[in-house]
Amino acid sequence: MINVFTNGYLIAAYSVFVVLLLTCSVFDIKFKIIPNGVVLAIILLGLALNVFTPEGVGLQNAVLGFFAGFLIMLPFYVVAGMGAGDVKLMAAIGSVVGLDKVLYTILDSIIVMGFISLVFLIVKGDLLKLLLRFLRFGMGLLRGGIYYEPPAPSEAAAQRLPMAPAVTLATFYVILTSCHCLGQLFDFLN
HSE on the CB side for 188, CA within 13 Å? Predict the structure, then answer.
């Protein structure tokens, strides 16, 4: 039997979650920043959802998801692969979806970002330049040396793409495919 009271809260919580993720994506695209206030709101939502609803993953799993999201993404920040806001956003998402789903979200985010980057390189017409740079690098390694040619600032490979839209898409995918809340939503609406 479906609890209409609980499902109403679930629908409201996931609706707020979607709006917050979309807000992060818009800010990241437009300003190249993810607001700390929005990230904090996601964390608070995740903790409330997982502590006060029976359908939540529980406090322990939410906290583990938070730390897993943070600790797995932190090395990418350290080597300048992504911004600090992206790391904080993934930690916040971990507090909502829990440990197992945050791992899938990270993997799916990397796949989606790779696809977006490939499309960006193709659209900008710089894919061949990137492949030639990799070929020269590989040939240098075969000859016993390291030859690295950085991309010109105007090339697509030198641009930093916003990660929040890829994280948002991956989060939507993981939530919609792995949790029973979508089925409950459809049952509730009927």
Answer: 17
- pLDDT, tens only, 163-190: 999 999 999 999 988 765 555 555 655 5
Q: Give the orientation angle of helix 84-97 with respect to helix 59-78, to 10 degrees.
A: 160
CA–CA separation, 64 vs 67, rounded Å?
5
Nearest CA to 41 out of 58, 26, 21 is that of 21
15-53 pLDDT, tens digit per residue, is: 999 999 999 999 999 999 999 999 999 999 999 999 888
Torsional class of 144: left (φ above 0), alpha (ψ -120 to 50), beta (otherwise) = left
Single-letter residue type at 103? L
> Contact 8/29 with Cβ under 8 angstroms?
no
Where are the chain's structural domains? 4-117+163-189
